[in-house]
Amino acid sequence: MTFKYNNPSHSKKVVSAVLAGMMALSAGGAALAAEATDAGQSQTTAVSNTAAPTGLFSDIKAGYWAEKHVYKLAYQGILLGEKGLFRPGDAVTQQEAVTMAIRFMNKQDQLNDTSAAALPTTMEVGNYFKPYVALALELGLIDKTEEEAVDVSKTSWGQKPATREWITKLLIRSLNKDAEAKAQNNQSTSFADNASISDGSKGYINLAVSLDLAKGVDGNKFNPTGSVTRAQLATFFSRGESLTDTAYPNTYTGYVTGLEEGRITMIVDGKLTNFAVNSNTPYFTKDSETRSPQANVQLYTKVQVVGSAGNASYVEVIDATPQVETVEGTFARSLSGNKIGVFVGENYETFGYDESTAFIDQNGTAIKLSDITADSTIEVQRETFSADKKTVVIRVKSGIVNKSDTGVIAEVVTSGKTIKLVTTAGTTEQYTYSDNLMIRYQDRILTLAELKPGSAVKYTVRDSVLQTIELSQGVEQSVRGTLVEIGGNQSTLTFKREGGSLEAKLLVEKPEVIINGIQDASLNDLITDATNGDQVELTLNAEDRVTRIQVIGRQMEPMNGASVVSYNAKTKVLTVLDSNKKPFVFTLDEKTKLDYNSTKPTMAGLESLLSEGRKLDLTYVGTRALSVKVVYKYEGTISNIDTSNRKISLLSGNQTVTVPYTIAPTVEMYNKSGASLTDLKIGDNVTVTLGANQDYIQKIALKSVAQFEITGIETNGRIRVKSDLLTSQFYFDQATLTGESGQTLTASQLTVGNLINVTFEGITPKAVQVVKRTLAEVTSVDATSVTLKLFNGQSETVPVSGPVKVIKSGSTLTTLGSLTVGDRVEMTKDTDNSTRFRVMTILSKQFWSYDGVGNQILVKRETTTDTNYRFALGTGVYVHQGDNTLSVQSLRDNDNIVLYLLNNIVMEIQKQ
């Protein structure tokens, strides 16, 4: 059997709220342990001397799965800790479980030390627990005959771990269903381990199952001897409160009537009650285990507050639905005595209001009662949780508006045909519009799509409907068409709009050009043609000038593997045969893109290579050559290495290319000097560079990917990196740079500390991509996901599929189970796309000083020979105490700190 609760990391131990609700969790050390006895129990202070905590338990962190329940009960005084610890994973004993039940039932006032002295000698318990156990016997929560028969030869009755079977009986009896349970004792349970369940417990278990209080664990077993932890019991008890009408200490349930900075006002038992709140006040909702934003507390919702002396220590939204009713009618007039007259249907009714009643118009803007005109449709909202049914809001739902005004467009909602504006007076208005809405800028008629938020406008409204909008200045807009011509001085552009009209536009000085596959594209990369030009989307600014040109389609044709027949340098006419020996004639011009084995290709350099038989790859539109590439290399995967006949075959695209070599070609591999053909294998992705005559292999460069952390960036295009503890450097001037999401970056956007994947062609970097790097604490882990608490305090559950690498204590493991709750990790994607977790090293130290120049901290030496006392700080090191973020400068001499290090760099400092 499993008691049902929502703990993701304990999915096999789910505990029902009702069953659990019968438990009251006693204190950990101080309230759990009794005074010293012959049984060897430890001496502790009395319960009255151990107050409920005013801060967090150090072993219950923000985001812990049972945090909500532990702290609610702690502030109610039901849970107590010892020396700032709660010990959530400890098992609960029988004497503790009995104490829980008595406290939950709020029967402490019936405790009697005299009756405690009469406990059976076999039921040995700590002195503190004796009155609770004696009362439990009186109330029938435990059976004296049953308990006297328990084997106590190895441990005392009170110290025995409370098993699931035993707790089930205790709780069913707490529900006053003992007779009902006994009536079912002659029935077997449906669990596979039914034979392991004692006959005297089967009826209780059957009843718990029928009440949906319990169900089986793996293999449909009850596991009668299983134990329950303190955190689980805290959760059960907390949830059980909603199923009783017992009044608990310092606990107030009511409806929110006021929300101000630092204060919540509620009606509790018909009386107004104020509670002070601050940034440390935890907020929760009834249906969630995790903390909730303060904004989730809304007026007129049902809320529970735990606190004392007017201070809220815990706030939980019990019902998020505002307890208000709405009456709609037609406003008649204002009456004396703070009342208004309203026609509701055919009936005339009056409604009162006071200084706290809000008057708003249809746009949510505050107005005065005198602003409401007769015959306006209004809504009167009244709270429903008190007999007074106080009016809280009077809202104008619709009133006739005729006006002209100026303002700024805030939002255009085409689905609802509404436009929201902010007037020059600062108020927000919203109006509907019809298909007849006229939008213009100067003498140009605009479409609704060109009406952008932020536009300054003058507008007119008639009968509450927008009639005209006139822009005070131009707006950015987008148009699409075919690119026909770029002016000779590159200051104008001619295009054919979708629909057929030819238009010319002025260009800004340096318009942005976006062409997929071309980095840092310019106007010279565009294809202009009356019929086959680039399909483009143009962005026009407020002055109607082109600021951005994005190519969204090209009609060019490719031709790979063509052979030169002839080339005329005067006419720039090139004749080729395609791979099927079909002839084609193309014309080259100053816009033709050139590519051969040179970093700065020129037309003269290309022409010297266009001899008969030369292999080319081309792109063209009609007879115009858009690009000409002299084939000097092939890219693909190795399909065969024939050392006997000295040739290598590649699968390049959809074709196999076989290239011979005369002498063993140079082989380049990243991180391996002196590589040769024997280092290559079938399936390797390579670039094969040809000799000057395209007839043999000159060099083979293996394509590979490696991951680094940037340690330095130089202005000459060189980057310093490290991988693990090895450092190196390379130039990236020939590489494309992209961010975490694939967006194009410039070198200036790279920063020290970035994790990057570098794609090498041999030893030359061709691509650099920034890798997302998440530093966090593991708060939960199962077979398919990890829940992390990020350094910003947010919690994130990350589903993990595919290969996993956990690098921990020098070993690389391959399962998520290798992670432990509390581990600090760096989560990234490795070069093979596997999810990688690097677990940080932990050191406990005493702070000495901070070296701002070297960005290091110094800690106290443990011995005079200790040299491990200076630590470098990582970029953005997270310094905190609990959930409070600190600066490293705030640390003081002798502060106890915990360091979390990655490759000997401090990523997190936790002040104790």
UniProtKB/TrEMBL annotation:
Residues 1-33 form the signal peptide. Residues 53-115, 116-185, 188-251 form the SLH domain. Transmembrane segments: none annotated. Pfam families: SLH. Coiled coil: none annotated. Keywords: Signal. InterPro entries: SLH_dom. PROSITE patterns: SLH. The keyword Signal applies. This is SLH domain-containing protein.
